Amino acid sequence: MDKYYLTTLPNGTRIISEYIPYVKSFSIGFWFNVGARDENARNNGISHFIEHMVFKGTKRRSAKMIAEEIESFGGYINAFTSKEHTCFYSKGLSHNIGKTFNVISDMIQNPLFRENHIKKEAGVVIDELKDLDDSPEELIYDKFEEIIFSGNTLSLPVIGREGNIKNFTSESLFRYHNTNYKTKNLLIVASGSVKHDELIKLTEKYISQNKSRFSRSRDQFKKKKAADVLFEKEIQQVHTIIGKTAPGYKDKKRNVVRFLSALLGEGSSSRLFLAVREKLGITYQINSFLNSYFDASAFGVYFSTNINQYDKVIEIVLREFKKLREKRVSERELKKVKEYLKGGLLLNLENTTNRMMRMANSMLYYNRIVSIEEYLKKIDRISSDDVLKIANESLNEAQLIKVILKSVKS
Q: What is the pLDDT of residues 234-248, one digit of tens each?
């Protein structure tokens, strides 16, 4: 049985950890419950931009010093922003936990946000945005979510818009940072050879103990009717997503949709991979996906192919959808997909960073740690009747939309 420790300090900061005695390292994440979903059309991209800017220095440390202090003792530091969270994380040897904690706590609490740094980093982020625009297999996911989540801030892209990025100022960054990056909105999560009592002491030493006022309010997603959309770009292949919205983390049905996604297009033995790529060889990339948020998910199938093969691929995808709506999966296939899901989870847990992220997501979405045993039991309880029912809800052609990126010449 896994053993987790949870402490909530008077300032509102929560600390979660698990001690793994047989490793000599740790992974630690500083999570803020803020992301693109908490923005608006005018400041979209600011959470992601702040994630970049905190690495640019504090009163005590330059950007070079931040990187060197972590890397000089064999550590690794990084960060990411999603639609609902921002995480600053590091991995290192266990005896360096104090040094790592000191650096990251300084970064997240004391950023400089100097105008010259902002201007320079805006160029970097705009280059990142243009890289995304040049990658149709990535861009299409943003377009898909923009359409299916229309009317809700879930539709906003994490990286933001070029006009917004150019207009961020020291004042706007400080205002947003002071509002959203509070101790009450901070979750510190660690996995590995690190004691919980030590984490509490480090938090009390390096994180402000002034109690902050913070409450997160988000507009709940309400589904709206969407239509197929065609975009044209200078590309060689046709890139397509066919899908819809699906239950989010708060809905028990999500686990069955997760199963359905694995059955359809995850792995080389999935139905779509075998039917489209292996049998006919008419696409290189085809996979299903489930991108989940608290109250909604984006679910669908992505593929790229030659324009001449496009109609054939769509025909096969829809045929596989129809099979799943009309016929129960066999016990053999049911068991195979369950083992695929369980194996994927357990193999991921051999990495302390993955363990840290699993604990954090569990706490942020369920307000408790869902044990590994509990998750495995949920997978085992999925029946062929459950799959048939969710297939009829999720693969109904009348409710699916297509987002297509194709060449301007075709």
A: 999 999 999 999 999
What pLDDT digit, counting tens, does each position of 303-357 carry? 999 999 999 999 999 999 999 999 999 999 999 999 999 999 999 999 999 999 9
What CATH topology corresponds to 229-407?
A: Cytochrome Bc1 Complex; Chain A, domain 1 (3.30.830)
Residue 86: closest CA among 25, 37, 146: 37
- Write the DSSP assignment of 126-159 as a string of letters: HHHHHHHHT-HHHHHHHHHHHHHTTTSGGGS-SS
Tokens 């769509």 belong to which residue? 314
Q: Which of 401, 377, 409, 62 is nearest to 232 (CA)?
A: 409
Q: Is 206 exposed, middle or buried (0-12, 13-18, 19+ CB in 10 A)?
A: middle
Question: Look-up: residue for tokens 């959203």?
Answer: 180
Give the domain ranges of the chain.
5-206, 229-407
Distance CA 44, CA 158 (A): 8
The superfamily (CATH) of domain 5-206 is: Metalloenzyme, LuxS/M16 peptidase-like (3.30.830.10)
Burial class (CB in 10 A: 0-12, 13-18, 19+), 122: buried
Using CA atoms, how far apart are residues 240 and 253, in angstroms rounded to an integer? Answer: 26
Note the pLDDT tens digit of each residue in 257-291: 999 999 999 989 999 999 999 999 999 999 999 99
| Distance separating alpha carbons of residues 252 and 261, to the nearest angstrom | 15
Report if pTM > 0.85: yes
Query: Residue ranges of the alpha helices (H) in 221-371?
Result: 254-265, 271-272, 310-326, 331-348, 352-366
* Among 320, 327, 325, residue whose Cα is nearest residue 393: 325
Measured CA to CA, the distance from residue 15 to residue 26 in angstroms comes to 15
CA–CA gap between residue 282 and residue 316 (Å, rounded): 11
Q: What is the distance between the alpha carbons of residues 166 and 123, in angstroms, rounded to a whole number?
A: 8
pLDDT for residue 199 is more than 90: yes
Cα distance between residue 135 and residue 128, in whole Å: 11
Burial of 1 (0-12, 13-18, 19+ CB in 10 A): exposed
Find the largest Cα–Cα distance for the chain: 64
